[in-house]
Every structure is written in structure tokens, then in C-alpha cells.
Write a structure and sequence with these properties.
The structure is a single chain. By secondary structure, the protein is an alpha+beta fold. The protein folds into 2 domains: about 5-95, DNA Primase, Chain A, CATH 3.90.580.10; about 100-245, DNA primase DNAg catalytic core, N-terminal domain, CATH 3.90.980. It contains 10 helices and 9 strands. It has helices spanning about 5-15, 15-20, 70-75, 80-90, 95-125, 130-140, 145-150, 160-170, 175-180, 240-245; strands at about 30, 35, 50, 55-60, 65, 155, 195-200, 210-215, 225. The strands form 2 sheets. A 5-stranded antiparallel beta sheet has the order 1-2-3-4-5. Strands 6-7-8-9 form a 4-stranded antiparallel beta sheet, covered by helices on one side. Strand 4 and strand 5 (about 65) form a beta hairpin. Helix 3 (about 70-75) crosses helix 4 (about 80-90). The longest helix has about 30 residues, at about 95-125. The chain binds zinc ion (ZN).
């Protein structure tokens, strides 16, 4: 499982490393540290030390050292996530709830991104001179402005970096953009969509979760769709509306 950094900090702040280590080792204070017999090698005089200030342990004999999580991981033979889990229980920190919150936060941010992009491309289609060809293409096929508005159709500008630059200007991180499904896997700044009519794909709660882009030039496939993502699972068929246009 993935454990958020904030949770690890919270556990680390709630527990003292003295409390964690002294469950296994008898510690005595000396010179601003605690000392005890090392649990990781055999010795008769203590060379194992714990610093509460640094929240670290270190053995001057066998040179093992680390924080409270690595200590538990070593002594109990647990993976790092398992040792975090163990200390979360000791600290009374709930891990699973926060996980859900993180996922939820990411989902909401993604829905906001898609909505923003949809609105901007819709505006471009209706208002920008560069989208005139796209608007004409639709009109020739009997799709007027009313329909364009009703389905929030849009236009992705004839610049393969436009979507990336637009979203970066809205303060989204490159890491977050990688999860959108909007970009080439090879070049993460190049959008799948340029010079295309954009059809928002709506989920059952009315949120835009994907796009289908209709080609206007000979570049790439006739239709390009965003791939499946953590927020979008493909359905078997397109909406009747896109179906009609595909003919
Ligand atoms: Zn040691």
C-alpha cells in the first residue's frame, strides 16, 4: 500500500524514538543520548545509541542506523509499509481513512482539470478565429451552435503543446498531468489532441471524464480517445451523438 508522507510525519511526531526502541532495548541516558546493548550484534558494553533530538538510532559497533521505522522493520523483520502500520497503531494514527481522502482529493482535482479544459476548448470553438474551420465542418454536417453549446463541444488548437502549456499555466504539476491520459506516453508534453473537434465524454454524474477528438487534418487517427485512467473506464459504445458524427 502507498502511505502518504504526511502520515509518516504524523506518526514520527507523535512517538518518541526512545519509546519505540525501549520496548526492545534497555536504554540509559548519557551525554545527551540513550545507550544500550545493540540488538543487531552481540556485545558486552553498550555501543548502541538513540538520539531523541534527531529521532535516529545508531550503533557504533555494527554501524546499523536509521529512524524508528527502519528500527522496527529491522528488528521485527517487516517491510517498510508494515513497520509504518505497526507504529501507526502504537501512535493511534489512522492510516486507511487518510488514504481514501488522498484518493478523493486527487479525483476531485482531476474532475476540475477536465472541466476547465472542456470549458476553454468550448470557448475557443465558439469564439476564436482559428476554430472557424472546425465550426464550419460541424455546420456542414448539420450541427449548429445550439448543439455545440448543449454538448459543450470544443476545439483543441493546432499546436501539440497547447494543452500542456495551458494546464501548466493553471498550476498543475507535470506529475499530475501524467495521470490525465491527455498526453503521449513518449513525450509527456505532447497532447494526443491538436486541431481536433473535442467531444466531452460524460460519466453518470455528469462529469467530463474523457475526450474523443475528431480529426480535421490527416494527422493521426480519425478519432482519438483518451485511454482508461483511474477515473474513467471505457464503455462498449460511444454516445449516439458521436456515433452519428462518425458516419
Ligand atoms: Zn550493533
Amino acid at each position: 500500500m502507498r502511505i502518504p508522507e504526511t502520515k509518516i510525519n504524523e506518526i514520527s511526531n507523535k512517538l518518541s524514538i526512545y519509546d519505540v526502541v525501549s520496548d526492545y532495548v534497555t536504554l540509559t541516558p548519557k551525554g545527551g543520548r540513550y545507550w544500550g546493548l545493540c540488538p543487531f550484534h552481540t556485545e558486552k558494553t553498550p555501543s548502541f545509541s538513540v538520539s531523541e533530538d534527531k529521532k535516529m538510532f545508531y550503533c557504533f559497533g555494527c554501524h546499523k542506523g536509521g529512524n524508528m521505522f527502519t528500527f522496527i522493520s529491522e528488528i521485527e523483520n517487516l517491510s517498510f509499509p508494515e513497520s509504518v502500520q505497526r507504529l501507526a497503531e502504537k501512535a493511534g494514527v489512522e492510516l486507511t481513512v487518510q488514504e481514501d481522502e488522498e484518493v478523493d482529493k486527487r479525483y476531485r482535482a482531476m474532475m476540475e482539470l477536465y472541466n476547465r479544459l472542456k470549458n476553454s476548448m468550448h470557448y475557443i470553438l465558439l469564439e476564436k478565429e482559428t476554430a472557424r474551420g472546425a465550426l464550419n465542418y460541424l455546420q456542414e454536417r448539420g450541427i449548429g451552435e445550439d448543439t455545440v453549446r448543449e454538448f459543450s463541444l470544443g476545439y483543441s488548437p493546432d499546436d501539440r503543446f497547447w494543452i500542456y502549456n495551458f494546464l501548466i499555466s493553471k498550476k498543475y504539476s507535470p506529475e499530475f498531468l501524467e495521470m490525465t491520459g491527455l498526453f503521449s506516453k513518449k513525450n509527456k508534453k505532447i497532447s494526443l489532441f491538436s486541431n481536433r473537434i473535442m467531444f466531452p465524454v460524460i460519466n453518470s454524474s455528469g462529469k467530463t471524464v474523457a475526450f474523443s477528438g475528431r480529426q480535421l487534418d490527416s494527422f493521426g487517427g480519425k478519432y482519438i480517445n483518451t485511454p482508461e485512467t483511474f477515473f474513467y473506464k471505457k464503455e462498449k459504445r460511444f454516445s449516439g451523438f458521436i456515433q452519428r458524427l462518425r458516419r
